[in-house]
């Protein structure tokens, strides 16, 4: 037991002490979470951030200013994210459809070109 006036060491139950049981519990929790992610469980997906928020305001601002626009409304950013999200959902769905039809598991450059062409956005330089 610690004596008066002396700071207890972690091994004596002082600050920074952790029991073997709590460390084992942390490891088990991490393993459960990892297993849930591998199985694609809902609980693993609930805490996932919305990736479309990775398209930041400064990044959009740089693109818009490069195109020659002088001022940008604050409402543009969220609207742009929504439009981009819809475009990407449709585009990726088409690319995956081409991949599945070819009985492959890897999306190729040609799948991407065909998906873009299907949406009337022709991309040159990759065949097709």
Automatic annotation (TrEMBL):
What is the species of this protein?
Pleurodeles waltl
Q: Which CDD domains match?
A: HFD_H4
Give me the segments passing through the membrane: none
**Function of the protein:** Core component of nucleosome. Nucleosomes wrap and compact DNA into chromatin, limiting DNA accessibility to the cellular machineries which require DNA as a template. Histones thereby play a central role in transcription regulation, DNA repair, DNA replication and chromosomal stability. DNA accessibility is regulated via a complex set of post-translational modifications of histones, also called histone code, and nucleosome remodeling.
Q: Which InterPro entries match?
A: Histone-fold, Histone_H4
Region Disordered: start-end pairs? 1-54
Q: What is its main location?
A: nucleus
The record describes its quaternary structure and partners as: The nucleosome is a histone octamer containing two molecules each of H2A, H2B, H3 and H4 assembled in one H3-H4 heterotetramer and two H2A-H2B heterodimers. The octamer wraps approximately 147 bp of DNA.
Which terms in the Gene Ontology molecular function aspect does this entry carry?
A: DNA binding; protein heterodimerization activity; structural constituent of chromatin
* Designated name of the protein: Histone H4
- Give the record's keywords alphabetically: Chromosome, DNA-binding, Nucleosome core, Nucleus
Which Gene Ontology CC terms are recorded? nucleosome; nucleus
Which compartment or compartments is the protein found in?
A: Chromosome; Nucleus
What family name appears in the similarity comment?
Answer: Belongs to the histone H4 family.
